[in-house]
Design goal:
The structure is a homodimer. Chain A is an alpha/beta fold. Helix content of chain A is 49%, strand content 16%. Chain A has 16 helices and 13 strands. Chain A has a 7-stranded mixed beta sheet with strand order 3-4-5-6-2-1-7. Chain A has a 6-stranded mixed beta sheet with strand order 9-10-8-11-12-13, with helices on both faces. The first copy, chain A, is flat, with a radius of gyration of 29 Å. The two termini of chain A are 22 Å apart. Chains A and B meet through strand 2, strand 4, strand 5, strand 6 and helix 2 of A and strand 2, strand 4, strand 5, strand 6 and helix 2 of B.
Chain lengths: 458, 458
């Protein structure tokens, strides 16, 4: 399985497209060093030690394309475990394209999406779940998604799956031993012990499957709605949250990410605000949308921040809104806004009626920190800091769910005293699905599907 | 002058912003290696040889920020001639920003625009004209601009300026020697020889100043107008040229430049088509613009491609248009379009009347190559391949023009038999302006002005 399917040498731009101080072109394959050497004027790259850097010129015939630094990695001491060369040139898209074209003319082939990482996987650098984490890591844009991807890339999740699998393999081999002695009717694998093992495995797998609801929002953000009557201050709150975030992220040119108008990072987690366009729009024209339409919109959210206009709303109105919110069954924060404009007495009364209410002034930026910490508590998102394994990949969930089904069948089989060969089949099925996660079991289609989602150059 | 004004260690992202397989962070300064070592878990970077690469982790306390490759360059064997470290991490803007923040917290300072290149200049890695070429090289987007920048970066232009300067210095020192012996009334510097030298210098400087008209279009593109009567096929020709170019540039993901609708590369040179919006617009509605307005627009061009509608226009009309074009005094190509729709006889007649006419069919893509080669001949742009020094920088032209003025004064002085001290003053003035180009003469203001136009990280 883990042999290198292609013996050719691949090339691609490894750095983002665009203009920068430098750009890096990566070559990998048996001929990587010799192809680079053909266009390099400087030291003989073939004679250099691994992990060394050499200054010289890239020559297209007699024309100097650029002065570059070339890093040489000799197999197997590289990312792909093949010979690898990284050419660091001036960061002009024109020059980078010229150099890539030149390397292709000398025998390299343009890499397909994810092909470097695929080769690293095929050559045993890491398993499939770790390879997938490389892509997650590159796309990570919050503390939580970064930590989850890093943990997975460093093998935390794979270890977990492998230890589950090893326990099962032990029993599978015992049962298959029985099959060899079928006529003698012995039981090498104790059925009670097997049953206990499977139940404990199922518990662990259930925990992993459950972790996906957290893993999914870590990776994709928490769908959040800010709701409330017209003029309750929804747009003001959204702006306050966004401006606070902008102030926190230090402004390093060239690295600052673009702020997406409706995505806000709070305590390391991304919250995706739904229908912010609607909120902003409502500011400019008269907010004619009825409260019913607001409630319809809230059903798409994982979390609701519901704003009460403390200036305008009566206690009865507020009570009525809270009942409707409870009926929705979606976690929500009940937030009284405009504290700066009402009497302390009124606030005390509210807190007696609604012990959970959060009192803020969005306009004056008061108690926003309290709102934020309640928001992260509400969705139990601080869990990502515990170091527990969190599944973030939908493919892994599919495999885990299939594993769970096969384990159900095994338990059912034990219960019905089926013969060893049936039990063995069910256990093999579980092993198969667990093995899909780390890539011990794989197909060319599956690999193609996974790596084609990577960017070129990775 | 060439001492390092700042002893601190600077850091910046060196690769373009955005998501890629890898991103590179560059540190430079006395503490570059020791600061990197503080956050690096792996080998002791302080104990490593120059030009070596080391795998390890970047740690923010106990948190692994990323697994990285670190390249170590020990002073003076680096771009800046200082200690330099390049950290190659996964290409996630989130991670890159975290690592830069971490390095800043450990004592590095965020680099200003162009500060790495400025340090390289200050430490004598190259002169000022070469430093400026680094920025031009990164922005080069055509063969011609790439070659001009590369020639300048590799010192071609600087050599030229330095040799002019050395000849003058010789005479300046002779004249200053005279001043020491002023009472003895000797002439160490032969006035006729000095005059001959200055005239030959002036010729060379004139050639350099003249080269700027070429250098400017190489750098910024040739302003070009496609003109002609309504329906002559202007829009069709523009599309044909643009599509041909798209077909030539191989489609390498991540490196292909964005095609600017009105910029077309022909034989390595960029032509900027003026008022292409007007041309495209005209296609959709009735072209109501009079021929007079077309001529007004043409005055902004360096080159005109004038299209004749062979189907509609009479010989008299064509003659009339040609006369108007000649009167404009701007180089133009006289092009008959729609050859596919007229008789061979008619074409022959045209060629007799207008020997210079280019006959094409824009719609059928016929003889477009001929049009292109005539276009580049017209503006003598093939000169850039001769290897002659071409000035592309407006700052250099200012200095050369000032040098020329000071040399005029010197000649005038010799003619009027002024005393040696006046001559010496004029020659010093010439030397000053020539020295500004290569940075032998410089001020902090001038440097700040030059390097602030660079990108951060360069």
């Amino acid at each position: 399985m883990h042999h290198n399917e292609k013996e050719d040498t691949i090339v691609a731009l490894a750095t983002p497209p665009g203009i920068g101080a430098i750009g890096v072109i990566r070559l990998s394959g048996p001929q990587a060093i010799s192809i680079a050497n053909l266009v390099f004027k400087g030291k003989d790259l073939l004679a250099q030690a691994s992990h060394t850097i050499h200054f010289g010129k890239v020559m297209d015939g007699k024309v100097v394309l650029d002065e570059v630094l070339v890093a040489v990695f000799v197999a197997p001491r590289s990312f792909t475990k093949e010979n690898v060369v990284e050419i660091s040139s001036h960061g002009s898209p024109y020059i980078l394209q010229k150099i890539i074209n030149l390397l292709i003319s000398q025998g390299a082939r343009l890499a397909k999406a994810g092909e470097f990482t695929k080769r690293a996987f095929m050559n045993g650098q890491f398993d499939l779940a770790q390879a997938e984490a490389v892509a997650d890591l590159i796309n990570a844009d919050s503390e939580a998604s970064h930590m989850a991807a890093m943990n997975q890339m460093r093998g935390g999740f794979s270890e977990k799956i492998k230890s589950l699998r090893e326990e099962l393999i032990h029993f599978a081999s015992m049962i298959e031993l029985e099959l060899d002695f079928a006529e003698e009717d012995v039981e090498f694998a104790d059925r009670d012990q097997l049953r206990a093992l499977i139940i404990s495995l199922q518990k662990e797998i259930s925990l992993l499957i459950e972790s996906f609801s957290l893993g999914n929002v870590i990776k994709n953000g928490v769908p959040t709605v800010i709701a409330g009557k017209p003029n309750a201050g929804k747009s003001t709150l959204l702006n306050t949250l966004l401006n606070e975030e902008k102030a926190i992220v230090s402004d390093i040119p060239g690295t600052t990410r673009d702020f997406i108008e409706d995505e806000i990072h709070i305590n390391g987690i991304s919250f995706r605000f739904i229908d912010t366009a609607g909120i902003r729009e409502a500011r400019d024209k008269i907010e004619a949308l009825g409260i019913e339409r607001t409630f319809a919109k809230m059903k798409a959210a994982s979390v609701i921040i519901y704003l009460i206009d403390l200036l305008e709303e009566t206690l009865e109105e507020i009570l009525n809104e809270k009942e409707k919110l409870d009926a929705l069954g979606i976690p929500y924060l009940f937030v009284g806004n405009k504290t700066d404009k009402v009497e302390a007495e009124q606030l005390e009364k509210l807190e007696i009626h609604f012990p959970d209410i959060i009192l803020i002034s969005a306009a004056k930026d008061q108690h926003i920190d309290h709102l934020k910490s309640r928001l992260t508590q509400l969705v139990h998102l601080d869990k990502f800091r515990t170091g527990d394994t969190i599944v973030t990949n939908i493919r892994h969930i599919e495999s885990l769910t299939n594993t769970q089904k096969a384990l159900d069948d095994t338990i059912e089989g034990i219960h019905r005293h089926v013969t060893g060969d049936f039990l063995a089949m069910d256990i093999r099925q579980s092993l198969h699905h667990l093995g899909e996660i780390t890539g011990e079991i794989t197909t060319e289609d599956l690999l193609g599907n996974i790596f084609s989602k990577f960017c070129i150059g990775k």
